[in-house]
Design brief:
It is a single chain. The protein is 75% helix and 0% strand. The chain is globular. It contains 5 helices and no strands. The protein is mostly helical.
Length: 89
């Protein structure tokens, strides 16, 4: 309750759920993080990784395009998701 408006907290919760194999809860947490901050780089990357895991490569590419808007010269999260997409394609 204390962190319900904290995108970082929702992102980390999503990561924990994804690592535990609960993809539905992970996606819900990432979606909540992105509702708070549409351009949260960590949530975009981790949700993109989840999309790849689920075979939703086109959705992962949408996340990458949103990251491109925030990181025109590149950032770690963007590079990591781009590499994961390249491996999955």
């Amino acid at each position: 309750e204390r962190y319900r408006h904290n995108a970082d907290a929702w992102n980390l919760l999503g990561y924990a759920h994804r690592q535990a194999g609960d993809v539905d809860a992970a996606n819900e947490a990432y979606t909540h993080a992105l509702a708070i901050n549409r351009y949260h780089l960590g949530a975009l990357e981790y949700q993109g990784q989840l999309f790849i895991q689920l075979g939703r490569i086109d959705d992962a590419k949408i996340n990458l395009r949103l990251m491109d808007e925030q990181c025109p010269v590149g950032c770690k999260e963007q590079r990591d998701l781009e590499a994961a997409i390249a491996l999955a394609d």
